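INFO  loader      accepted 1 record
INFO  loader      residues=321
INFO  predictor   begin
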Amino acid sequence: MFFLRGIVLSVSIGVIVYVCLSLLVALTWRILKPDALRYPAKLSADLLFAMRLAPAVVSGAFMLVLAAPSFLWLEPRAVVEPMGAAPIMLCACGLAVVLWGIRHAASALRSARRTVATWSQSAAVISSEPVGANRSVPILLSSSALPPLGVAGIVMPTVWLSPAAQYLLSERELRSALRHEIVHVRRKDNLRKLILHFVAFPGMTNLESAWREATEMAADDAAVSNGSEALDLAAAVIKLSRLAPLDPPAELTMAFVHNPTASVNARVERLIAWNELQQTKAAGYSSKSAFCAAAALALSFAAAYTHLLILMHAATEILVR
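INFO  predictor   done
INFO  writer      dumping tokens
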């Protein structure tokens, strides 16, 4: 009973933190949205993804690092206090959110399998592209007209190309477009999509759409190294936008081009205006500053850990009453 009580209180604290942080992230995004894409695309994509995941990560840390240890350390085992309705309701809501996230992610996986099965009918491997040491990704020519070009799969990703796209693009344009898709594979963007399905929360649609746009621009930047390649990729975006479906991309796939039109126009404008300075800024992004900030935060947290446990236990006592 003691441990069950601890689980209920820990989950309750996690739910409160998760909801509050989710609302804060949604509000913060509305304020920061006009400036979101002024940074290098790779940095913007990583920051948007981190912002979207922050409520789930922080609430999980509160449960495992603060709430549960404070209960185990400071709660008398011999004392039996009545459990109020609030912690039980919050715990039930937390479990419901987790189960709903699992169901949402599982549904996306099933949908992706069905989509790939449709594409696989009479598909043929035409080549492969390296994505790292001793690893390559197969490129399949699909019998289906859709998608014109895209990446599917998480553990064993594949690049899919339609006959129409193969016919429409020149050799240089196709090479640039394929490099773009390989960047998605290296960045594991389909896995990131699956994680976002798992932590679905109301009001986050615009933030997730901005992340997808920034991810496409980051892949554009990484796929070109000079102005000629940038123009080839811009031409591929324009040509394949005419073949892109009106519906959103299939679940857990990264389509080379998808609506809305504004996103396509923004990508084309960036590629046409490509310059060495832009590429240098994008390539110069590193995680050193983030690592230093995280290390400083971890040291501060360790120094104040005991005091934080005491404060957390006091908060759980208020919740119980």
